[in-house]
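Service request form, structural biology core

Requester: graduate student, group of Dr. S.
Request type: structure prediction, single chain
Budget code: on file
Notes: please return the result as structure tokens.

Sequence provided:
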Amino acid sequence: MPPTAELVHDRSLGELLNHRDVVLEGRPAPQRIARVVLADMLGEARADDAKLVASELIANAIKHAGGAVLIRIEVYELGSALGVVDRDPDTEALPASPSNSSTKSTAVAMSGRGLFLVHNLSSTWSVEQTENGKIVIAVLTPAGSR
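Core staff response, request fulfilled:
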């Protein structure tokens, strides 16, 4: 899988049709805000996977990075890209290949399933450092393109 930045910057998703940055910092119910904006931008029928991915990325930012600062939503001809920004610069904390189980074969992990969902619903995802933290980006394309 190509890194997210390459996929978006090499224009393989087509032309950028719509873009919105939504500030989440200090706002109540940031996941709900993201879901409402995604439904508005993508249409309710196309937004299900994007809403789940955004909710998981925001939940991770809240739990592990002190909160989500904003969500960047970009809609392209052939898919969409979601980026959740937080203030924690640690990009090493995110596993390259998240799983849905603990190290014991008979147990299921109590946490860590969020990135497993992101990994499986996205065509690709990555984390990049920013000037004041990091952004976790997920690219979603139609099911046949994964």
